[in-house]
Design brief:
With 426 residues, the protein is an all-alpha fold. Helices cover 60% and strands 1% of the residues.
Length: 426
């Protein structure tokens, strides 16, 4: 039996009992209020979802299963995947078992490549990625077992199987899309001796003589793996999965949300702004020049991408991890130097402006320049990288949801007329 499934069989009964007792004893307790502005403002801050895989306190940043993300930056994605699903870090033996299991599942069906080759040459990489995931729905063991009549208590087992099968294939699919979409030559076979993220770099075909690009990819996959369940991609995946749509349907749906400009495109927008700075000043600007450029951006009615966050009120610990990586690996890279200088100058500008609740950088402020440094310069592709990583969190949340028996999501909607009448009466 797979190590993750074995561990979950030990833990799930206790999870179910804890939630059963919690609902029984405190089911009528109020934990959140909803204002009219929240209803019309995207439900920001409304406590209405459960996510046990991660939490994002405004004053701490991402915490995965009670472990701050800064303490996970040197872990392999396979270890973090295990942590997300099981709730504890694996030992060395368990990590090796997960790595072998993912390798065993990693072969991409030939028909997926046929589907991708049939698309127009200028298709967006995210459309290709999400379509490839959806095309593989025929592989779903959850759907097959559900059709045969499995018990509700078994839903998590086949959600787990689908999730591991899917996650195992994503690096090859994403790398294949990169090579096909940007005319990089034939597909590159997997290296059986490499880990999940390292193999991804290998299959991209971008030279990595020092091995640091592989290290960056390992870090990238860990840092972007999960971020609560209220963001668009996670919430969409959860909602679709709550209908018992299998993980292929649910993850593809979630990643369609990630493709939106307000969600997953931030790192390329940040990098574009950094490149604009470099082009304007012919290299790294002085602090004063950068300060003025930042004010010019704000006075033109634009935002400085990469600064501010919907939840955080501190520097994103994930930014710190990328910043630290850049200082070690490419301190002389001009784009990295500009990113470091922006970190020094822009928060003070935003504080002076006084319109931004959070003047500190988020994860997107640094990741793009590092990808660019290693030769991954196709901006359109960056969200695919994000999607490969975030699929770990999406799948982990699906598995836990089915394990604890969460029902279909169905909040009550109201009309504007009802709101008017209700608030006027109040």
């Amino acid at each position: 039996m797979d190590i993750i499934k074995l561990k979950l069989k030990e833990k799930i009964p206790a999870w179910r009992e804890e939630i059963k007792n919690l609902v029984k004893e405190y089911g009528e307790k109020v934990i959140s209020e909803v204002t009219v502005s929240q209803v019309y403002g995207g439900m920001r801050g409304v406590k209405a979802l459960v996510c046990d895989t991660s939490d994002v306190p405004p004053d701490k940043g991402l915490i995965i299963r009670d472990i701050p993300i800064a303490q996970l930056k040197d872990k392999l994605p396979e270890e973090v995947l295990y942590l997300l699903i099981v709730g504890e870090l694996p030992d060395k033996e368990a990590t090796e078992m997960v790595m072998k299991d993912l390798k065993r599942r990693s072969k991409v069906p030939d028909y997926v490549w046929n589907v991708l080759r049939a698309l127009p040459k200028d298709s967006h990489p995210m459309a290709m990625f999400n379509l490839a995931i959806l095309a593989m729905e025929r592989e779903s063991l959850f759907r097959k077992k559900y059709t045969e009549g499995m018990k509700k208590e078994e839903y998590w087992e086949w959600t787990l199987e689908d999730s591991l099968n899917l996650i195992a294939k994503l690096p090859a699919i994403a790398a294949g899309i990169y090579r096909m979409r940007f005319d990089k030559g034939p597909l590159i076979d997997s290296d059986p001796n490499l880990d999940w993220a390292g193999d991804y770099v290998h299959m991209l075909g971008i030279p990595d003589p020092t091995g640091e690009f592989k290290n960056l990819m390992r870090l990238y996959m860990v840092l972007h793996s999960d971020h609560e369940s209220g963001n668009v991609s996670a919430h969409t995946c959860h909602c679709v999965g709550s209908a018992l749509s299998d993980p292929y349907y649910a993850v593809s749906a979630g990643l369609n949300g990630l493709a939106g400009p307000l969600h997953g495109l931030a790192n390329q927008e940040c990098l574009a702004w950094i490149i604009k700075v470099k082009e304007k000043f012919g290299g790294v600007p002085t602090d004063q020049d950068l300060r003025q450029f930042a004010w010019d951006t704000l006075n033109a009615g634009q935002v400085i991408p990469g600064y501010g966050h919907a939840v955080l009120r501190i520097t994103d610990p994930r930014f710190d991890a990328f910043h630290e990586f850049g200082a070690r690996v490419c301190p002389d890279d001009e784009l990295y130097q500009i990113v470091a200088k922006v970190f020094k100058v822009v928060p003070e500008v935003l504080k002076e402006q006084g319109k931004v609740k959070d003047p500190w950088p988020n994860v997107d402020a640094a990741s793009g320049c590092l990808l660019y440094h290693f030769g991954l310069k196709e901006f359109e592709y960056y969200t695919v990288l994000f999607g490969v990583s975030r699929a770990m969190g999406l799948c982990a949340q699906l598995i836990v949801s089915r394990a604890i028996g969460e029902p279909i999501e169905r909040p009550k909607s109201v009309t504007t007329k009802w709101i008017k009448e209700t608030v006027q009466k109040a």
